[in-house]
């Protein structure tokens, strides 16, 4: 059981790194996030899918880290 969770944990970590690196940078700095960047939490097409996948992998990474913490005790 613990080995399967470790493998899923590593795959989630690699997924986060991969999907974040595949996204194109906005190059607008911090000011656009505060001043009404309309597509801050989503997007359309290819970019929206990458944002969604990186969010899912990030959430899975956190959940699996908590599961590993409880299993190891």
Automatic annotation (TrEMBL):
Its main location: membrane. It comes from Deinococcus roseus. The keyword Cell membrane applies. Belongs to the SecG family. It is found in: Cell membrane. It is a multi-pass membrane protein. Keywords: Cell membrane, Membrane, Protein transport, Translocation, Transmembrane, Transmembrane helix, Transport. It comes from the Bacteria. Signal peptide: none annotated. The chain crosses the membrane at residues 6-24, 50-71. This is Protein-export membrane protein SecG. InterPro entries: SecG. The lineage of its organism: Bacteria, Thermotogati, Deinococcota, Deinococci, Deinococcales. Involved in protein export. Participates in an early event of protein translocation. The keyword Transmembrane applies. Pfam families: SecG.
């Amino acid at each position: 059981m613990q080995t399967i969770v470790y493998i899923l944990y590593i795959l989630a970590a690699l997924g986060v790194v991969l999907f974040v690196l595949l996204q194109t940078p906005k190059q607008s700095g911090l000011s656009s996030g505060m001043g009404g960047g309309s597509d801050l939490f989503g997007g359309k097409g290819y970019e929206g899918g990458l944002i969604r996948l990186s969010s899912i992998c990030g959430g899975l990474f956190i959940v699996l880290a908590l599961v590993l913490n409880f299993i190891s005790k």
